[in-house]
Amino acid sequence: MHGLGINPADGMLYAASHFGVFTVPADKAPERVGDRAQDTMGFVVAGANHFLGSGHPDRLDSGTPPHLGLIESKDAGRTWQTLSLKGAADFHSLEVKHNRVYGYNSQNGQIMVSENQRDWDTRGRVAMVDFTISSTDPDVILAATQQGVVRSADGGRTFAPAAGSPRLTLLDWSEGDVVIGVAPDGIVHVSGDSAATWTARGRIAGTPAALATKGSEVYIATESAVHASTDSGSTFTIRQALK
Question: Tell me, what's the pLDDT at 242?
Answer without folding.
Answer: 84
